[in-house]
Every structure is written in C-alpha cells, then in structure tokens.
C-alpha cells in the first residue's frame, strides 16, 4: 500500500480524482480534486452552491458545458455522492429512490470525449453506519470495442490512515492513459485540513485547479482550495 502523496506525485496528470479515507483522528472523509491543462479546463471553480451542492462551475459567464460543469457532490439522505461528472446527480436521484448501491451506480458510460474517453468515477459514502463506501467506475475498454467496462467496489471499515483513490488518468508527463482502476493508499493526515493540504501539495502546480475535502452529512462544512 503506497502513500497517497507518492501515488499522486508520480502521476504527472491525474485528471480528476475521488478519494475515500480515514484520517488519523478517526474521521471518515471524502475528497475530490480537479486538474487541467487547457484554458477551458482551468477556467473552472469548485464552490458550494446555494442549494447545498458542491459544484464545478465556470469562473466567468461562459456557456455551460456538461462535461466540464456539473454537481461534484450531493447529500442524499444518509449518503454523500461525489464524482467527476453529471452522473453524480443521476446516482443521487437513484439513491433517493431507494435503489441498492450496485443498481444506483450501474448503467453509466464513460465520457464521449475522444481520444481519451474519460472514465466516469462516482462514490457513495456514509450510509447508516457512516463507515461504508461504494465506488463505481465506467471505463472504455483498452481493446477495440467501444462498449463500457463497469466496475463496482465496496469499501468498509477502513482503519485510520487507510484510503482508496481513483483518478481518471495516469501520465508520465508525455502520454496520457486511462487511470489505474483503483489504488489502496495510506495517508499521514490526522485531520480534514491536513488531508486537504496533503492532496494539494501532491498535485503539480502547473495543472492543479481545485480540491475539496468533506464529510458525509456535513457537506456544508466542506473545505476547498483553488489555484
């Protein structure tokens, strides 16, 4: 199991990422971050909207782009849903309707953005015990077929210092490929603020846009850093 900061530092362009972990103080926390290279990708902010959703929004009055601007986190009953696209709202609605987690996360497709075909990553976390998380990933096959590979991962009862990370991409600085399905990681953070600092410092300054750390049931207390 690698250190969280090492995994991110070695990935020169992780794209967007979702993390569920337990810090040293015992807190169970989710995190979401954005990195980008193009001017359009970088012209975004991560902010708490008036309705309580955490949203990725344009920093100016540019037209809404459904691949770049979306709800990144939403509380739905006992569950906090977060991820890298418009599917977050879809999954939150399914959870609110009482669908089981595998069905709530099922049937999603990767983004229609050739040639990369960005995976859609979604996490539902919290629940009745506060200790559970479900990860869903919709990824294009690395073979020639265009159909979606869908993965659901249940994570329970993390020990302090443990976490699970997914990123949309992995890059050596020259080529970009679909990210590794998931990483089990360790964090030295002992609080919400320390986790946000660890994430932020591990992302390369030339691509980082925003990062947020939040707790199920307390999305209104989200902590955000912006480039």
From TrEMBL:
Pfam family, one: IMP_cyclohyd
Domain Inosine monophosphate cyclohydrolase-like: 13-213
Name of the protein in its database record: IMP cyclohydrolase
Lineage, highest ranks first: Bacteria, Bacillati, Actinomycetota, Actinomycetes, Kitasatosporales
């Amino acid at each position: 199991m690698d250190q969280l900061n090492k995994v991110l530092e070695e990935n020169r362009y992780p794209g967007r990422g979702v993390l569920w972990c337990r810090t040293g103080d015992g807190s169970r926390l989710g995190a979401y971050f954005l990195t980008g290279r193009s001017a359009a990708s970088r012209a975004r902010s991560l902010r708490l909207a008036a309705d309580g959703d955490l949203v990725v929004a344009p920093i100016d009055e540019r037209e809404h782009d459904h691949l770049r601007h979306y709800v990144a986190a939403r509380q739905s009953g006992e569950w906090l849903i977060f991820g890298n696209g418009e599917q977050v709202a879809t999954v939150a609605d399914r959870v609110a309707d009482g669908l089981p987690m595998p069905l709530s996360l099922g049937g999603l497709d990767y983004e229609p953005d050739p040639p990369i075909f960005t995976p859609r990553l979604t996490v539902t976390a919290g629940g009745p015990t506060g200790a559970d998380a479900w990860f869903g990933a919709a990824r294009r096959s690395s073979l020639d077929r265009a159909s979606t590979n869908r993965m659901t991962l249940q994570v329970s009862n993390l020990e302090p210092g443990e976490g699970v990370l997914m990123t949309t991409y992995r890059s050596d600085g020259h080529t970009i490929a679909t990210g590794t399905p998931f990483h089990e990681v360790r964090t030295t953070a002992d609080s919400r603020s320390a986790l946000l600092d660890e994430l932020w410092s591990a992302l390369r300054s030339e691509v980082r846009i925003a990062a947020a750390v939040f707790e199920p049931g307390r999305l209104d207390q989200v902590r955000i850093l912006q480039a």
